[in-house]
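TICKET: design request
STATUS: open
ATTACHED STRUCTURE:
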């Protein structure tokens, strides 16, 4: 079901349960950092929704969830829906506990199999099996290419781990792939899930005004994007390249390609190793190499 902003805030707050030293009674505490995180997520939910705990994303053909900002065109067009599920709602523990200490004797808490599996079975009951993704630093790094492939799927089920992660047995049981947003570790998988949803949804037909809004961007074709400019034509004695003011579409397209190759060479040269380069692209790179050799 949909979440109001108040319900979302309460759910996020409930995830942070700390124990005092006087009898292990649960005590809620919201640090300044967590309060900031809540604000950030609420700001993001207006345009892309929130995947927290477990999220079920699917291309939409039904009605828009009324609680979401009606000005958000992505939702208003019925392009997709995101439903959030609190894993605590699927535990049989009387204290709504969903984690326990690892057998490996490592410090921290590990999310248990049963609540996650119960949630998965409930959410997918009577539906075609969704593609199940576990947000994990052990997964393959999310790329534009993979996001485009995921955008072709009808539904995606996203599992967010927390602290030490998830019992490996439920990963083996239900997860189709693990995805990482970079070689670093976060407290939980909620923010990486937001990144994944936004990256995938913006490539659904109708989300952006035209396909070239994302086809011309960094990484889509293996290269970084060319520099962009807007008015005024001159700012701090820096001028917009004359070719962009010429109206010559062929020359503009040529400039864009050359600048994309240059940007990739200078900023992310490793991307060129797997980019489909033309003879003209290689000639541009050769000139850049010669220029560097002369320095």
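STATUS: resolved
RESOLUTION: sequence designed for all positions
ATTACHED SEQUENCE:
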């Amino acid at each position: 079901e949909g979440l109001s902003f108040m319900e979302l805030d309460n759910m996020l707050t409930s995830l942070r349960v700390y124990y005092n030293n006087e009898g292990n009674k649960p005590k809620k505490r919201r640090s300044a950092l967590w309060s900031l995180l809540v604000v950030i997520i609420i700001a993001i939910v207006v345009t892309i929704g929130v995947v927290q705990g477990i999220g079920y994303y699917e291309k939409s053909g039904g009605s828009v969830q009324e609680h979401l900002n009606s000005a958000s065109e992505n939702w208003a067009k019925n392009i997709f829906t995101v439903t959030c599920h609190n894993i605590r709602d699927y535990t049989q523990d009387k204290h709504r506990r969903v984690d326990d200490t690892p057998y490996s004797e490592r410090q921290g808490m590990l999310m248990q199999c049963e609540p996650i599996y119960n949630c998965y079975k409930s959410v997918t009951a009577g539906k075609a099996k969704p593609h199940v993704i576990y947000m994990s630093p052990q997964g393959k790094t999310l790329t534009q290419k993979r996001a485009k492939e995921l955008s072709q799927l009808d539904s995606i089920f996203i599992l967010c781990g927390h602290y030490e992660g998830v019992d490996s047995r439920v990963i083996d049981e239900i997860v189709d792939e693990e995805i990482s947003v970079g070689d670093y570790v976060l407290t939980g998988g909620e923010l990486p899930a937001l990144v994944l949803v936004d990256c995938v949804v913006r490539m659904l037909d109708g989300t952006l005004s035209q396909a070239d809004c994302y086809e011309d961007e960094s990484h889509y074709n293996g290269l970084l994007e060319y520099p962009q400019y807007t008015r005024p034509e001159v700012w701090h004695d820096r001028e917009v390249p004359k070719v962009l003011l010429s109206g010559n579409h062929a020359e503009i397209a040529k400039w864009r390609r050359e600048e994309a190759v240059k940007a990739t060479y200078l900023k992310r040269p490793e991307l060129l190793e797997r980019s489909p380069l033309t003879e003209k692209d290689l000639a541009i790179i050769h000139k850049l190499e010669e220029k560097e050799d002369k320095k």
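CLOSING REMARK: The longest strand covers residues 131-141. Residues 249-267 form the longest helix (19 residues).
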